[in-house]
Each structure stands twice: as structure tokens, then as C-alpha cells.
Amino acid sequence: MVNNIFLTKEYLYIVDTGQLIIHKYDRTGELHSSFDFGKIAGKPTVPPPPVGNILANEIDNQPFVTSKGDLMLSTVNFGTTKDKIFKLISWEGNELSEIGDVPEGSEFVLDNVKLRKEASEGEIPSFYKANSFPIQDYANPDEYFFVYSSLPKIAKYTSNGDKLWEKDISNTEADQSRGRFFKIMDKMNSSPDIRDRIDLEFYSSGVSSNEGDVYLVANTEPVVIHQFNNTGGLNLNGIHKKDGQ
Asked: What is the full DSSP assignment across 120-150?
């Protein structure tokens, strides 16, 4: 169940979230080695969908491979409490650091009754608060943007886990996503199936440029891409929209 791929100067990494394995291939296509991250990392907050479904890859709290070939793995697991969201380890399994603060009020046990109550009161569900994904800054390879896709918020960390800055994100697309979420959840509150819910994602993916800017894809239709500078400032001239899917 391939969830993501990463390409470095020498290797191609394929993330299999069905078997909790990362395969490492060299540039000739030969399998170099495999890493069983299920033995080290906690499971992501949302279980993978049934095998056979064709869906967009889940980006929050998923394995990430750095340009050096180190692994960033989620420490978030069901029923546990952590201070940091990711653990940075070498391919050999040596722990290097922990990165990404867990937002205050986060919970890692899905309580559908509480989630519905929080949504009905206009609050971001505590189960969603720790949902985040890293983006390596290619202008400063030892630094990472952390995008909290359900708050929304963006932060910057060093590979040692030191926080450089943190900023809340406010824009039209974020307001639209927030409004859509609470509107749909309000309708779902009348559903007899207490499990009915939707995810809250302000951003669905992102990438850094060689100059250190970061581009985030807003979870809207038509597609909107936001350009942020290296200090988290939104470039209003760097917002691009495209009709269609």
C-alpha cells in the first residue's frame, strides 16, 4: 500500500503504510534495504483505509525521508500522550532528535461524542490538533517547516528539535475550509451513527523551493496554492488559483 515516495541524490524511498515498511532502492533500481518502521513509530492518528481503495495519500503524521536519508517517524499513537509529534532517526535506527510540539489540548483517543460536541461549539476537535506534516527547507536542509493542517498553523524547527518560530495562518481559504467543516459537522450531528464525521484539513500538501519559500496547497476547490517566505509570511502576490480538480 504505497503512500509516498522520496527521492534523494542516491536513493529512492517507497513508503508502504500497509506493511509499515520503507523500501530503499538505488539509482539502478536495485533494492538496497528495507526499514520496518512499525517496530519503532506509533501508528498515525487515522488508520489507513481498506486495501483496494484509490485515495489521495494521507499526509498527516506519516513517515518522512530527509535529503540525508534520515527518517522522521510519528510518535503519535492511540491512547498515548507525547510532547513531540515526530522522532528523527537514522536509517540504522539511531535516534537523533524529537521534533514538532504537540499542541495544547490534543488528544489521541477518538471520542466521537466529544468530537461532535467540540465541533458543535465551533472548536477544532482535540483529536485533530496534532495532525501535521513536515517540509524540508531546501535552502537550509537542517531546518523544517511544520504545517499543522487542522489549526491552521506553521512553525519552523531545526533538525535538533529547536523551534525557530511559530505563526498562526489566517487567509480566505482557511476561513472557507473552517466554515465548510463546521457546517457539515452540524448536519452530521443529527446522524444516528455517532461515527459520522469529516476531517478538517486546511492544507493537503506542500513543498519548499531552493530559495527557502514554502508552497502549500489549500484544501479548496478550485485549487489554491499559497506561497510563504522563510519566516512564515504569506506572499499575497504568490497565491495561485486553478479551476477544476
From this structure: HTT---TTTTT-EEEEE-TTSTTEEEEEETT
For residue 68, what are the CA distances in angstroms to 4, 9, 209?
Answer: 17, 9, 17
* SS3 call for 184: helix
Give residue-wise pLDDT tens across range 200-244. Answer: 999 989 999 999 999 999 988 888 999 999 999 998 776 777 654
**Residue 204 near residue 194, CB atoms below 8 Å:** no
Amino acid at site 237: N
The dihedral over CA atoms of 172, 175, 181, 187, expressed in degrees to the nearest 10, equals -110
Q: Is the bond into 152 cis (omega within 30 degrees of 0)?
A: yes
What percent of the chain is helix, strand and coil (3-state, nearest 5)? 15, 35, 50
Residue 8 — pLDDT band, cuts 50, 70, 90? very high
Between the two ends of the chain, the Cα-to-Cα distance in Å is 24
Q: Return d(Cα 154, Cα 240) in angstroms, integer.
A: 19
Tell me the CATH class for 2-242: mainly beta
State how far the Cα of 100 lies from the Cα of 144, in Å rounded to an integer.
10
Task: Please say whether the beta carbons of 1 and 16 come within 8 A.
Answer: yes
What's the rounded Cα separation, in Å, for the pair 95 and 152? 29
Residue type, 220: T
Whether the CB-CB separation of 100 and 84 falls below 8 Å is answered with: yes
- What residues form DSSP beta bridges with 23? 14, 34
